[in-house]
Amino acid sequence: xxxxxYGILLLLVxxxxxxxxxxxxxxxxxxxxxxNKGWTKNAICGMLGNMYAESGIKADIDQIGGGGxxxxxxxxxxxxxxxxxxxxxxxxxxxxxxxxxxxYELEHGEQFYKTSKFPLTFxxxxxxxxSPYDLAAVFVANYERPASPNYDK
Length: 153
Fold this sequence. Notes:
- By secondary structure, the protein is mainly α.
- The chain has seven helices and no strands.
- α1 crosses α2, α2 (about 25-35) packs antiparallel against α3 (about 40-55) and α3 (about 40-55) packs across α7 (about 130-145).
- The longest helix is centred in the N-terminal third of the chain and has 17 residues, at about 5-20.
- The chain is globular and about 35 Å long.
């Protein structure tokens, strides 16, 4: 194996967690990313539960059945993610970029809004030790905000 081939293989192995469409590898990467940002494990797991329902924890996925959503949390329209990533010269198809976008939304007061049913701000959410089940419902209501939420899903 020459140096070039070895380098490409090494890059693929190192980058696989951010390029992977394997839900378990993606979940591990997401957990580590947000844990390093100070999120509680329960907050991360609540978000991961939502990502599983939204995208199967796959970054490069369009909304099944149409609707214009895309990615781990099904940004709608897709341009909410792609425009942001393109401005920063990031690959919007990766788990890493999508994690960066979620963290950016947290730090800039975007996307997550407390509701009367779940009166947590994004900053309170990431520090919460409520159960992952409860925090998944908070994430649906305050971040995703679907027209017809199904909190038991």
